[in-house]
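Input chain follows. Return structure tokens only.
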Amino acid sequence: MWDWIVNILFEILKLIQGFTVDWGLAIIILVVIIRLLLTPLMVKSSKATARMQVLQPKLMEIQERYADDPQRQAEEMQKFYAENQFSPLGGCLPLLIQMPILVALFTLLRDLPHYFGGEVSTFAFFNILPDLTATPGSMFGQGLAVSAPYMIALLLFGLLMIIPQLYMSRNQTGAQAQTMRMTSVIMTIMMLWMGWGLPAGVLLYYDVSSTWQVVQQIFVTQKVIDKAKAEEEERLANAPIEVDVVRRERKARPHKKS
């Protein structure tokens, strides 16, 4: 299923490596290319996130009003999405696009000799990560000088998951903020557990991509979100008020008998 994606990824990395003469640098350049291509989608995703934050009270009102009628609740939710031209999955598209790349990169690094015809040249990131196919688990205990870069890549893999979540929750208070922080901690632990067995090349890709995302979120995305929230709040304020009126049926008047 993934063969054609893996083959395309391998050819792209091999082409980039031909200019950079380093596989790790080729992965970094691949991240930059993909992130630049995804920038328009990231802006759209940020706007969708901002709209979701503004529309959330309305959605919760619908859920509470029709809590005893799931079918009516679903109908009203769909109606609300259609009236506001909003898709709840709009913010997930960039992540969905990147997932096949991560899976393909994992497959490529796991079966690298197969794609090189059985012979593999040095697949390293300069002298920092001497073997991008090795995992932190396999390098652990081989001396501080050898294993330290892999452990650092693993820690970044976990920390770069929690930093965006903490940044997003900085203005929240109460139970919602506490829930988000707890979720972030749990996800970080899960990421560290997953990263223990991932090739260093996958960790390198994720670390660089997530660092780009954090910088973009602080300096670009937040401005887009603030502007989109202001526009959505203004649109809702100027929207006509809908009144849900239930008309009572008029009973037919009795006819007088002659």
